[in-house]
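INFO batch 0412 | record 1 of 1 | parsing
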Amino acid sequence: MHVFITGATGLIGSAVTAELLSAGHTVTALTRSDASRAKAVAAGADTVDGGITDLDTLREVATRADGVIHLAFGNDFSSPEALMQNIADETAALDTLGDALIGTGKPLVTVSGTPWVEGRLSTEEDPLPLDGPVGGRGQTVNRVLALSEQGVRSNAIRLPRTVHNEGDGGFAGLLTQRARQTGVAGYPGDGTQRWPAVHALDAAVLFRLALERGAAGSAWHAVADEADTVADIAAVIGRRLGLPVESLPTEDFGPIGPVFAMDQPSSSARTRAELGWEPTHPSLLADLETLQP
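INFO prediction complete | emitting tokens
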């Protein structure tokens, strides 16, 4: 299968690209810089210049592909307005990719976060939030899954709070970055809130499985660790970096502070049963042990 991937050279995208190539698929990566282009070529992928706001490029390449995996998302979380713009850009991109595949039966795999459910692990059957800081993203993913009624084999991989590799990535990676900048391994609230996590290489396998045989209109949970407490995550970060560990006000973490403060454990039982997915790489807490001061 020839697969078009947006976000192909990020932490997750690099793992997905390598997984697809090792399974015998070919890849065209959307790249917007010399560095990302060189990285994709070195991995064995073809490239096309552009970003997710280049809608004509997205439409053209998706039309030629046998399937599409969308991973790109803006990295500006400096304000609520910036986050809203990231979501708006992604929405326009997915609308374009979906339109290009209507009536073809080809797969379109997109991404979201795992949902929040009070008092228990969320499951694949639980709906995504449609309001709040990331509600717009949930609305967009629902539109993508609804394309299953228009001849698109659409799937959504719900990623947990942290997708990690060698101690980097996801919300735990953001806590690490902040700790290095401020000299304190901080966490919001009392630290009892729980985050799910997955190693990027395990998540990549799930993207491939969904691309190859995910049923149209399905959502899957890329969850290996169901419920690491944020205090435990910060404790490892602080110990590895030689920094004090402290609870900090939620507002200290900027516009995504309220998301950081949420308790959001999650299960992947149905995903494992139906797609045969089984994580094999290190857990988040074990992976954070590789951090260097």
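INFO post-check: The chain has a mean pLDDT of 94.
INFO record closed
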